[in-house]
Amino acid sequence: MAGVNGSPMTESTEDRGARDGGDGDVHPDDAGSGVVIDRIGKTYDSDGSQVRALDGVSFTVDQGEFVCLVGPSGCGKTTLFRIIAGLTEPTDGEVRLGGTPVTAPTTDMGVVFQEYHLFPWLTVEENVGFGLERSDRSAADREQRIDEMLDLVGLSEFRGSYPKSLSGGMKQRVAIARSLAVDPELLLMDEPFGAVDAQTREMLQRELLEVWQSTGKTVCFVTHDVAEAVTLADRIVVMAAEPGRVAEVVDVDVDRPRKRGDPAFGEHVARVRELIGARP
Ligand code: ADP
Ligand code: MG
To answer: Which of 47, 50, 68, 79 to mutate to test the pocket of ligand 1 (most atoms within 8 A of CB)?
Structure first.
């Protein structure tokens, strides 16, 4: 666990140095906020036995792209999410964000967990502003940023409320606003809508797409809900289990805004389901 502070990643490593890692050896594909997941492996040691959670996982998320990661329970989605976020160290390989190896949590990423990780003793606006506290923005600038984020997720009226008085969907909007407040290059989400009802979930999906389209962020989104992935993603990384690995990367060639009744939508859902169900 990230501890009580969860997201946003305030353990800033902004002073880690030049974004090219200082060695000038940047592959062109690594430029900007693109993410390169390069031959990631992870073995957990628990009580003397070893679990190979991930093996040889490689794919990229281009700058401004929306990539979903889907796969059966236990295929290593959360492990990979934590490795990309710099919260878990991989056994093999490395993750690069904009060409720089990720070795610790950074404010370059906004992280949204399935559980809301809000601070119950802070109001909505204080939660949204939390990551800004340690930034070098002026008080007026922070205020303005909080206003913009509350407006973006439609919670301006609830700025003075405490999390306990909010619905699940509203709490997750606060978490999204908080993760975006520090203006991260990459938004990283692990089953963020898993705890809300189906109707709220579809609303949050639409809102997230609006945020993505208006901010141009790079998004990497973990879900086990295939229809959710087809609704959101430019590309879907389909994972298989034991060991966790990439089974296939599917281009979602369906016009936006996407409709569940559209035949192309249904074909993509069927294709991804087949890949998940298929045994090697
Ligand atoms: P998913 O999110 O796809 O359900 P996880 O990344 O949570 O998958 O888990 C992948 C595998 O790694 C599972 O077999 C799980 O039991 C194991 N695992 C996850 N976290 C740990 C840990 N901290 N210690 C030991 N094994 C773990
Ligand atoms: Mg998980």
So the answer is: 79
Instruction: Look up residue 160 and give its two tokens.
Output: 């003075």
Contact yes or no for 185/33 (Cβ under 8 A): yes
Q: Where are the domains of the chain?
A: 1-108+184-252, 118-181
DSSP line for 249-267: EEE---PSSP-TTSHHHHH
Domain 1-108+184-252: homologous superfamily in CATH: P-loop containing nucleotide triphosphate hydrolases (3.40.50.300)
pLDDT in tens, 162-204: 999 999 999 999 999 999 898 899 999 999 998 888 888 898 8
Element (H, E) at 51: strand 49-61
**Ligand 1 pocket: which of 40, 42, 43, 44 to mutate (most atoms <8 Å of CB)?**
44
Instruction: Please give the helix or strand (H or E) that residue 214 lies within, else none.
Output: helix 198-215
Pull the structure tokens for residue 108.
Answer: 């370059």
pTM confidence score: 0.86
